[in-house]
Design a protein that fits this description.
Layout lengths: L1 H14 L16 H4 L13 E7 L8 E2 L6 E2 L1 H12 L3 E7 L4 H6 L5 E3 L12 E9 L1 E6 L17 E4 L4 H15 L6 E4 L3 H10 L4 E5 H11 L2 E6 L4 E8 L4 H15 L1 H8 L20
Helix pairs in contact: 1-7, 3-9
Length: about 290
Amino acid sequence: MAFLALLGVVSAAHAGLDLKANEKPLPVTVDPQAVAKIPTDYRFVEPGTLTVAISALNSPPLTLVASDNRTRIGSDPDIARLLAGSLGLKLKLVPTAWEDWPLGITSGCYDVALVNIAVTEQRKEKFDFATYRVDSLAFSVKSTSPVRAIAGPQDLAGKKVIVGSGTNQERILLGWNEENKKAGRETALPVYLTDDASGNLYIQSGRADVFFGPQAVSSYKAALTGKTRVVGLGPKKAWVATTTKKGNGLVYALQAALDGAIARGEYQQVLARWGEQGEAVTHSEINPAGITY
């Protein structure tokens, strides 16, 4: 019942989204306390500018292209604007492939990565995190699929499952495959795609059975088109966080910027206009316990 209630809330929220109105940036207040926490020796990629990597994929409500076919909008770009505005900086968004953000951060191409990155213990060895959303994963299928629920490895046995390479959902899927092997069941076949349009085509044409990805994206699609439905949530809960190079100190300014935006209600406005209220945090946490595998 709780799962069905959650889907009802998400569907109602997404059904009321006004994408045209959401193209207008929300107002942001400069936060002197956050500005004061920028390390004096930190050198931004571009002086006076926060350079932020965001997903190059069209994955609403996280990221999508506005009606001008150029401007990036979505909850992650809006969070990036919150950070830059709170810190008194200009904002530069850089659309980035998932595979490229780790090198981009470590090599200094970006100040921050906002690519729906979940905190893991392994990633904490190289990066610092300031949380800004709860990370929920979901399984979705074609609306006419005979699959009614996915709750464990046995439910994916023999299924073709779309996942992103190097993601938490891929690790979960591969772990479930090991469990299926031990139980003598057929394993799932991972399907690796690099764009959302291909994922939609694969699900609708039957070339894939299940999409396993961010719950916000899956619920948005289901509510917007009715061509898919969510049939289960992932087994692990984690945190989505701003991601910076380990030890450069910028994470403390980012945390302060997020906490200030939460206190002022600006953060809640962002999540509300993208239907993500159910993934809100009450405060930003630096390097919390991450997922382990």
